[in-house]
Prior knowledge:
Strands 1, 2, 3, 4 and 7 form a five-stranded antiparallel beta sheet that branches. The chain has a three-stranded antiparallel beta sheet with strand order 8-9-10, with no helix packed on it. The protein has a two-stranded antiparallel ribbon with strand order 5-6. The protein folds into two domains: 8-115, PLAT/LH2 domain (Lipoxygenase-1, Sandwich); 134-175, no CATH class. The protein is elongated and about 75 Å long. It has one helix and ten strands. Strand 5 and strand 6 (81-91) form a beta hairpin. The protein has one helix spanning 115-129, and strands at residues 8-14, 17-18, 22-23, 51-58, 67-76, 81-91, 101-105, 139-143, 148-152, 158-159. The chain has 176 residues and is mainly beta. The longest helix is centred in the C-terminal third of the chain and has 15 residues, at 115-129. It comes from Cisticola juncidis. InterPro entries: Inner_ear_hair_cell_LOXHD, PLAT/LH2_dom, PLAT/LH2_dom_sf.
Amino acid sequence: NAGTEADVYISVYGERGDTGSRQLLKSQKSKKFLKGQTDIFALEAVHLGCLYKIVIRHNGLGSGKGWFLDKVVIKDPVTDLDYTFLCHRWLDQGQDDGNIARELPVTDASTFPGRQELEFKKEKTWAAEKWKFQKGITLQFYNRLTHGFICLYPDSRVDALGDKKNKYGKVFSMWM
């Protein structure tokens, strides 16, 4: 009994305005708002910029009018960002706090400026550094405190004392 047959409405708010209240009419599923089901709707609107909240509600009419909403995810086709709005509450006059409307702030980290750039840099860094984690690689780090090398061996051994030479026998001097 977590689904609803009531009419559901959503208002989406972004840095450039809002959509106003829109009824969610046609899901890609034959029956919408069933328990445990993910429904997908197309919503036409001007581009709102970065989204920061939604208001989602139902009209409280019909049999099975109470509704448990887990979350709403909005995919922005212009920026290719996903905005997640977590709810995990009832919209029901007889459950929870009795409200049939919820104002939900965005909770997805993808809305922070530069998120796509950060993801790109992370992928680029991993591509450059992943060799260090391949089987058989021994890592050596110079320790300024002991003036020696810390070695991490492929068999999970760690030599934290190290000597003042790397595996090629070169002595490193430190200038301060």
